Amino acid sequence: MAAKPVKKVVLAYSGGLDTSVILRWLQTTYGCEVVTFTADLGQGEELEPARRKAEMMGVKQIFVDDLRETFVRDFVFPMFRANALYEGQYLLGTSIARPLIAQRQIEIAEQVGADAVAHGATGKGNDQVRFELAYYALKPDVTVIAPWREWDLTSRTRLIEFAEQHQIPVTKDKRGEAPFSVDANLLHSSSEGKILEDPAIEADEIVYQRTIRPEDAPDSPTVISVDFAKGDAVAIDGETLSPAALLTKLNALGRANGIGRLDLVENRFVGMKSRGIYETPGGTILLSAHRGIESITLDREAAHLKDSLMPRYAELIYNGFWFSPERRMLQALIDESQHSVTGRVRLKLYKGNVTVIGRESPHSLYSTKIVTFEDDQGAYNQVDAQGFIKLQALRLRLGAMAGRRGGAL
After folding, report:
1. CA-CA distance, 101 to 95, in Å (whole number)?
2. Residue pLDDT, tens place only, 112-171
């Protein structure tokens, strides 16, 4: 029995077994009208079947939105300005998609007069947190329904039985246990669960969908250039592209060269460790390119400060705090650092590796005249280094004279 009366709910709907069962469960349990929302984030699936399935199940208001450009421009690119990596490795492909889905759900709820939103995330994972923190940040009084925390459909068998009882079509491949679960968007694909749960066992090749094996990649490297304007990639090999088109092209280049595979055991926000197989071909290239252009355009202390803040920024995104004041504050600092991050980076792609082989910028801080091993014609007085070193060594000398080994306590 529903704990709180609900008149209309906006459901994040994929058209798959789980969310189709949720759709009917909401109708029967809450007796409410269900509005479905399906987001095209570049997951590579045909979305019209989801619309047709929702229509078949009596849904009157159906939203199927192409959000690919919004996703890359307003979510992926701001994140990449920070070079964000969770726990030093994960490029946050699933994490960064959730706030956009939640944002659009809330917009639809306002548009259609819904008093609730619902998602299909389980009670064990991070996504329930990400969705719901975003919901409450954007619409504090919204009612959130999380079926996996309420119902008793705790197995695939129970889901299929419910589907059959309520005339929900179940494809043949859904009647057996899937070997692993997959989430995908334009930035990445992630696979976890079932055959991937033992972190001691190497993932089977069937798990990988976005990349070829590095061993099977071409024997000659692919050399490309990426142009940046104020921290965002704008062109590949001199061709100006929209954000989504640019990431799509980088994905193709990464796939062909076996780039972007990651086998990771991570710490979920809810407390447990989980093992995931991630593929982020275009994002892996983009990260290397962005760090390449920053290397010649950012001041040393600005770059080091930015790097020191990155783990906190990445953790905020991973944990679902995209709409928090602290993430916005960090974003403002990061974006301020990007005004001079403009120029071109050349990269070599080869058998799973990305190597920066050249970088140039009209705002470059790199001075050949000063750094040269040849005669710098007085551009740098090497004698000045003596005083600099002595001042840096002062506390070490004082410690040593006081009898402390190495100046330490």
Report:
1. 11
2. 999 999 999 999 999 999 999 999 999 999 999 999 999 999 888 899 999 999 988 876
Q: Cα dihedral angle (354, 360, 365, 371), rounded to 10 degrees?
A: 80
DSSP 171-202: -GGGSSPPSSEEEE-SS-EEEESGGG--TTSP
- What is the C-alpha radius of gyration for the chain, rounded to an integer number of angstroms? 25
- Residue with tokens 């669960």, as numbered in its chain: 193
Query: What is the DSSP pairing of strand 353-360 with strand 343-350?
Result: antiparallel
C-alpha separations of 300 from 96, 306, 329, 380 in Å: 28, 10, 21, 18
b/e burial code for range 236-275 (CB count within 10 A of at least 16 → b)? beeeebebbebbbbbbebbbbbbbbbbebebeebeeeebb
Task: Give the 3-state secondary structure percentages of the chain, helix then strand then coil, rounded to 5.
Answer: 45, 20, 35
Within 8 A by CB and 6+ apart from 165, the residues are none
| Residue pair 159/16 in contact by the 8 Å Cβ criterion | no
Distance CA 311, CA 314 (A): 5
Provide the pLDDT for residue 2.
46
Q: How far apart are CA 18 and CA 5, in angstroms?
A: 23
Surface-to-core class of residue 234, CB atoms within 10 Å of its CB (0-12 exposed, 13-18 middle, 19+ buried): middle
**Residues 347-357, mean pLDDT to the nearest whole number:** 98
Per DSSP, helices labelled H in 73-120 are 77-81, 98-112
Q: Cβ neighbours of residue 368 under 8 Å, at least 6 residues apart? A: none
Name which of 138, 153, 56 is nearest 101 in CA terms. 138
Q: Pick the range with the lowest mean pLDDT from 43-52, 56-65, 295-304, 322-331.
A: 43-52
Instruction: Note the CATH number of domain 182-298+340-360.
Output: 3.90.1260.10
Q: Residue 44 is which amino acid?
A: G
Neighbours of 35 (CB within 10 A): 26
Predicted structure pTM score: 0.93
Q: Tell me which residues are annotated as active site.
A: 18, 98, 127, 181
Q: Is CATH 3.40.50.620 the right assignment for the domain spanning 8-68+93-177?
A: yes
Which two tokens mark 89? 């490795």
Domain ranges of the chain: 8-68+93-177, 182-298+340-360
